[in-house]
Amino acid sequence: SKQPSDFNSIEFLNNCKVDLYEDGVFIETMPYTVSDTLSGLGWYISRYKLKQAKTYKIISEHPELGVATAEEYLPYRPFFTANLFQHADSVNDSQTGIITITFNDSALFKDYYYFSVYYRILKPVVNPTTGDTTYKTDYIFNIPATSTEAPNPINYSRTLFSDNNFDGQNKTMTFTFQSKYSVVNKKIDLIVEFAALGFNFYDWTMQQLKPAYSNLNEGQEEPSNLISNIQNGYGHFSAYSSRTVDIKIRWFPDSLV
Question: Tens of pLDDT along 132-147?
């Protein structure tokens, strides 16, 4: 068990008993899996298929370090619809994107969410030897999205929010983002992701989203010791369920390229 002020290297312990529980019912003892045969480093892995709307708990026992526990609720994967109202195109390749999502919030729980957008593109790659052009799939991430109802002051790639202002309602939210378009890409898909978060996932992430500021010429920044949700340990155990919608922005069949 390491504390935030302990900067020594991490020890991987292969003699723990790590049990997985689902809604309080024992599922399995997770086996230790070696990832590096030379050093013996590894981790404890469960092959059990997790289920939505269940609470999962890990209990780890060690003969010298005692017992460490952590638990988190895995929410339902949220259903939603997405409508794109504005996007960059061949005429204006830097136009601001405008998109809405609509979803039903549950009145039974305190709910936490994140919204994000990214791109999947098919971009040209020229063979330097033959001069032939082929196309490969690539992704463009880290695209901040903002909403008047879910501010994103530090331009994080995921916009996090809770249902404080719409608990139990059918909700529509509008987000803006810097959309991207290039005629050199054979295909452009906008991927819209919407996720329901366990509280620990939401809380852990929010702790790390500090307001942007410059500490130029002010020396080293103070370390940020995040609050752990592991009892008798330090770290992070959390869960989320996400769903994506693909929106075609540009698509050219092989015969037209």
Answer: 999 999 999 999 999 9
Rounded Cα gap, residues 15 and 33, in angstroms: 11
Pairing status of strand 112-126 against strand 187-197: antiparallel
CA angle, corner 194, sides to 52 and 95, nearest 5?
170
What pTM did the predictor assign? 0.86
3-state secondary structure at position 152 = coil
The owner of tokens 């890409």 is 185
User: Kind and range of the H or E element at 55?
Assistant: strand 54-62
pLDDT digit string (tens) for 68-79? 999 999 999 999
Sorted by sequence, the CB contacts under 8 Å of residue 16 that are 6+ apart come out as 32, 44, 60, 61, 62
pLDDT at 255: 44
Place of tokens 């939505």: 52
What's the pLDDT at 4? 62
Element housing 83 (H / E): strand 80-86
